[in-house]
Amino acid sequence: MRATFLYGFAIFTDFLQLMIMLSFAALQVLTPVGGGAAGVLSGCYINASAWYDLFGCIQGAFFGGAAGGLLSAFALPIGGALDIALSLTFGGGLMVLLAWNGMFYPGVFLGGFIGENIPFLDALFPGWTFMVWKCLKNKKAEEAKARQVPGANAVSIEESPRAFDGIRAANDNQPYVQQAA
Fold it and tell me: Best exposed site among 26, 102, 132, 157 by fewest CB in 10 Å?
């Protein structure tokens, strides 16, 4: 049950990052083209005469493409910032869920967290899902090891540390060496 929920949360996070990457990549490509097309349409609509229509269309395409290119320049940084914000928030939530279920392994989480905070690269590799799989695998290995050795956590009386060695009574003035004899 817990594995299904953790996998679902991780897959949802990876899918959301993929959709953000694809939308901002499409925005990066389509904004200059769309700006040019909108400029052509607006330039052709504003000017009414035949010779000015062509000039207006070219002028509109130039300024529309330039405006689209300027907007396009901000698409990748905004997308990268959104991607990192998503990694920090949803990744932090996933960390809390893993710790709550006793599956927080700092080495696994640190590697996944660093890998997931590289903008747009994390969408190509489902790092959160891999991290959940690795934590579940480690937890199952720990549980199997604990079941294999019976009494591995118990300490026998002979092996227990002597906590009271060297302690003597407050009114005893004899040295420690004489007491031991």
Answer: 157
